[in-house]
Amino acid sequence: MPEHDTHEHDTYERLIALLDSSRIDYRLLDHEPEGATEAVCALRGHPASQAAKCIVLRVKVDRRTTRHVLAVVPGDRRVDLDAVRDLYAARYVGFSDPETAERLARSVPGTVLPFSFDPALEVVADPEVVAQPKLYFNAARLDRSLCLSGADYARLAKPRVERVAAATADVTPHH
After folding, report:
1. Where does the signal peptide begin and end (predicted)?
2. Model pTM score
3. Which of 15, 41, 61, 138 could form a disulfide with 65 if both were Cys (CB 3.0 to 4.6 A apart)?
4. In the chain, which ranges are continuous DSSP H helix?
5. In terms of residue numbers, what domain contains 65?
6. Residue 47 counted as domain residue
């Protein structure tokens, strides 16, 4: 059994245990394996704005200090790297390499939870995420998603809530 399969399974089990122990109302949805936000939203039958898009970022605060941040934004938005840089007064913010992201998020790309089970990964969620009456995300698996309220998510995940989303139309190509 490949290592990431057990990893994925452990993270899923840990999430369900956390939800059950907190007596939070949630729903599981099984679907075709899919990790791309737009495609999985179509499978689950909801607008992308109700999805939690989770991106692991590398934040270089100074020469010696690199932090890892899990940015959680609505599925129809992108992470505003400048906003994250300002938030941490950092010199540089970029996407984490896949290996680091997988290790810290404890799941494969496309299944990253809006929760952190690693003290080295800090969660920052956009206010639009926690404001959702229904919030959907892949449950550390490509074939199963979870739905809960943004308020319950915030209570359970305890993210730092800051504006870190930008409209996708704001993306300017770098030349």
Report:
1. none
2. 0.91
3. 61
4. 3-21, 37-44, 81-88, 98-105, 127-130, 150-157
5. 3-167
6. yes
